[in-house]
Amino acid sequence: MRLNKKVCLWLAASLAINVLTYNGTRLLTSNWYHYDMTTAIEQSIPFVPWTITVYLGCYLFWICNYAMGCFQEEKKAVRFLASECFAKFICCLCFIIIPTTNVRPQVIGEDVFSRAMRWLYCTDAADNLFPSIHCLTSWFCVIAVRNQKTISSWYKYLSVVLARAVCVSTLTTKQHVLPDVVVGVLLAEICYRLIPFIYPFSRLF
């Protein structure tokens, strides 16, 4: 199955709004006050440097499942991409209205995972946390495949397992706190269910 013009346009829109949401908002909010939502629950979660392999390795998972979400029936592909764009737009508003941050642990190990964590902390600022883009995107990977009859049940189950693993990794790498994770997953699910009823997107289905 080939990508038609409509799906390609929505895919381009998805990539554009992702850049705007994650990077563009930082230009606006970098000097604003940022809220820290960390609670005793997150403080009790151990810092596990090796889980950076899940946190960074998920990009391959995203590419594979988003491709499957795009290479399906046009109506379903457009719904998938439109809901993803809508969710990212809401994330953009959240990053502006409720700028968030957290306090990261001091990484003192010299093993490969500790070095990777220090690199991550240096390259990825502790902001734009609520909701978690990592968790939202990973759950959209589940949404992308779960209703496709041509995809095996074992892969659908694997996608759920991988998405949950990514959510856990955002906590064990101390990149996010629990509200970021929960709202990220819920936002993906809610937007996918609501998008057919939201004007003018409803005309696309």
Q: How far is it from the N-terminal to the C-terminal residue, by CA?
A: 19 Å
**What is the average of the pLDDT values?**
93
Number of helices: 8
Strand coverage percent:
under 5%
The percentage helix is 55-70%
The secondary structure category is mainly alpha
Low-confidence stretches: none
Largest sheet: 2 strands, parallel
Order of strands across the main sheet: 1-2
Give the strand tally.
2
What key phrases describe this protein's structure?
mainly alpha, 2 strands, 8 helices, 2% strand, globular, single chain, 205 residues
Summarize the structure.
The chain has 205 residues and is mainly α. It has helices at residues 5-29, 40-44, 52-70, 74-97, 112-123, 133-146, 153-172, 178-194, and strands at 35-36, 100-101. It has a two-stranded parallel sheet with strand order 1-2.
Kindly describe this structure:
The mean pLDDT is 93. The protein is globular. The protein is an all-alpha fold. The chain has a two-stranded parallel sheet. The longest helix is centred in the first third of the chain and has 25 residues, at 5-29. Helix content is 66%, strand content 2%. It has helices spanning 5-29, 40-44, 52-70, 74-97, 112-123, 133-146, 153-172, 178-194; strands at 35-36, 100-101. It starts with a helix and ends in an 11-residue tail after the last helix. It is built from eight helices and two strands; from the N terminus they run αβαααβαααα.
